[in-house]
Design goal:
Shape: globular
Number of strands: 10
Oligomer: single chain
Structural class: mainly beta
Largest sheet: 10 strands, antiparallel
Helix content: 10-25%
Order of helices and strands: HEEEEEEEEEE
Distance between the termini: 50 Å
Strand content: over 45%
Radius of gyration: 23 Å
Number of helices: 1
Length: 207
């Protein structure tokens, strides 16, 4: 190989390496400094443990009888590029009560529509960031509570975005004790209970 050819190959390799390095640095900076912007469709599954009497705050065991539910969820999640996001979704759940035998509880199914808002923070070089819930309102569409609404206290989710920004994964990373408050059509509280939920979501960018 001629010296000129060798020099050309070396120069080409160095250029490719420098380009790769710059691209990686740009992507890393984007993950660290840029708030997400875009609309994503998502689907997921999860489960909740409900305890009307609450939970032991350390052992996270129920205080008294409890009920369980598992659910699927699908909807859209929108980020505005300024650290805010909002979701709109439909949840279908099945409720059952292994620990409530003899209490009169009847297993059931329901669907709800939900809307919630979040604040984004903690963007990292690995594509991870945190979503902290600011508001949550659900409306029962079917089942025994049809027409009633409910709110849920704040919680956090951990998200990771792909390098091309086309896909996201999200899940809770701690068993937070949430308070669910249920209202009738007139806006009066009809039930309050604590719950601990787990779940995961997969998202695909729409725009």
């Amino acid at each position: 190989m001629k010296a000129s050819q060798a020099a050309g190959l070396i120069a080409t390799g160095l250029f490719a390496l420098s380009t790769t390095t710059v691209t990686a640095e740009v992507m890393q900076a984007a993950h660290q400094k840029t708030h997400l912007k875009g609309t994503y469709s998502y689907t997921g599954q999860g489960a909740c443990l409900y305890s009307p009497a609450g939970f032991d705050p350390v052992a996270l065991t129920t205080l008294g009888n409890s009920t369980n539910s598992n659910f699927s969820v699908t909807g859209t999640w929108v980020w505005d590029g300024a650290g805010n996001s909002a979701l709109s979704a439909t949840i279908v759940s099945i409720s059952y009560a292994p620990s409530a035998v003899g209490t009169g509880f009847v297993p059931s199914a329901s669907s709800v529509s939900v809307k919630a808002t979040f604040k984004s923070s903690g963007y990292g070089a690995d594509g991870g960031f945190t979503e902290t819930m600011q508001s949550f309102v659900g409306t029962f569409l079917t089942g025994a509570r049809k027409g009633q609404t409910f709110t849920v206290s704040n919680t956090q989710e951990q998200a990771y975005i792909s390098q091309d920004g086309k896909a996201l994964t999200m899940a809770g990373i701690s068993p937070d004790i949430q308070t669910q408050t249920i209202y009738n059509a007139a806006g009066s509280v009809v039930a309050t209970q604590q719950r601990i939920c787990n779940g995961s979501r997969t998202m695909v960018r729409l725009s």
